[in-house]
Each structure stands twice: as structure tokens, then as C-alpha cells.
Amino acid sequence: MSEQLQLQQWLCFQIEEETYAHPVSQVREILDYLAPVPVPGAQHCVEGVLNIRGEIVTIVSGKHLLGLEQQHRDTEHIIVIETSAGLVGISVDQVDKINLLNDEEMVPSERSKASSPVKGTLNHQQQLLILTDFERCINQVEEYE
To answer: What is the CATH number for 22?
Structure first.
């Protein structure tokens, strides 16, 4: 019973060929990809903004946040997360499923950059998951502006 209390829900998604996971507690909704309206002068990682049910949401490239080059657009979904700065959408290639993961099994990563969203890795059912904390790097983007 106590082991079950340590499990948290994580939303698993794909960018390029890797599988990532983000805490479900911060996820507000998942949308099919819609092309956002570009914002002149925005940072390179900002794809634009969308009006989602009356709220203006900044859409940020998940690939750019993870330090990957955007060779071609193959994103299919936007994960809308709640941050201290408000709602932010992260574009991803594919959304897979929700897994129950034990945080204590995570191997923390050494963050080479202060704005890296990667918290660590976890081996789950013969698959390596890269655990993310997008709120941290979104806060860095907000401070830059």
C-alpha cells in the first residue's frame, strides 16, 4: 500500500525518437496541433500564440526547449501546461499514454544548462523515459522577455 502512495501519474509523449514524461498534475489539456499565430520579436523557441477558449496561450516548441534542431514540422499535438506564469502550450510529435511512475526510481540528470527541462531518466517496463520539468525552462523564457 505504501508503495502505491509514492506513484505519480506522468504523461508520456514523443519528440523525435525519444519518449519523455511530464507530471500529469501540471497538464491542463492536450490538443491536436493548430498552427499558432506568429509573434514578431518573440524568442526563437516561441512558435506563436493561440486563443484557447478565450485565453491567449503561448505555444513553445518542445524540440527547441530540449535543444533539438527543428528539421521539419512533424508535431501533431500541443500539451497545455499550467505554470506560475500562466498557461503555456508545448508542441510535441505524439502523445502516448499516462503511466504511474515512482519518483524514487528516477536517476537525476546533471543539467548542463540552467534552462534544460530534463530532470532525469527512469527505466519503466523495458523503456527509458526522460522525465521533464517544462515549468522551469518556461520560467527562464519569461525572465528573458
So the answer is: 2.40.50.180
